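// run 5 | inverse folding | seed 20
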């Protein structure tokens, strides 16, 4: 019995590995709960919580991955797997970054637009499109795209990387005639 209790906290043994697995899982779940609680409390201070929700989801994935990598480094039998996992994540992030450059550019530009608020939903703007200068009302701001509606009731979808790198003219609101 005493031998079993001694092995229970030894990561070299199966019972010890399982105990530490449960411990790291519990810590990861606690970390995720803390991120969610922080997000709920912080959401009261923002009008638009899209960026906050995105960062919260990213933090939750990060907490889980950190727990998994730390667990793999703690258990000697998994140490090589943990090192390979860490190296694999590094290589994968580089490959994903290169493959999704324009998507990531739109995403980061969307975060910047949501944080800096150069314009808001309902604002009338004028910008250059492939068809020429267009005037429209902003209908929606998402992390990837900004949606406008012009006077002809056409929807214009503009990537956020274009919205953040282009000169946008804010127009006064239209008067009801």
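// decoded
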């Amino acid at each position: 019995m005493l031998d079993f209790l001694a092995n229970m906290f030894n990561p070299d043994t199966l019972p010890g590995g399982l105990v530490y697995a449960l411990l790291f899982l519990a810590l990861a779940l606690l970390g995720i709960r803390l991120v969610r609680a922080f997000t709920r409390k912080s959401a009261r201070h923002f009008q638009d919580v899209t960026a906050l929700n995105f960062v919260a989801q990213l933090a939750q994935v990060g907490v889980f991955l950190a727990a998994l990598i730390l667990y793999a480094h703690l258990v000697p039998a998994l140490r090589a797997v943990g090192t390979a996992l860490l190296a694999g994540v590094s290589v994968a992030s580089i490959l994903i970054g290169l493959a999704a450059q324009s998507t990531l550019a739109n995403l980061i530009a969307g975060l910047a637009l949501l944080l800096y608020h150069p314009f808001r939903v309902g604002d009338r703007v004028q910008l250059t499109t492939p068809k020429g200068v267009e005037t429209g009302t902003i209908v929606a701001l998402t992390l990837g795209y900004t949606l406008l509606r012009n006077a002809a009731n056409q929807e214009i979808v503009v990537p956020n990387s274009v919205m953040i790198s282009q000169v946008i003219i804010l127009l006064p609101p239209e008067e009801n005639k």
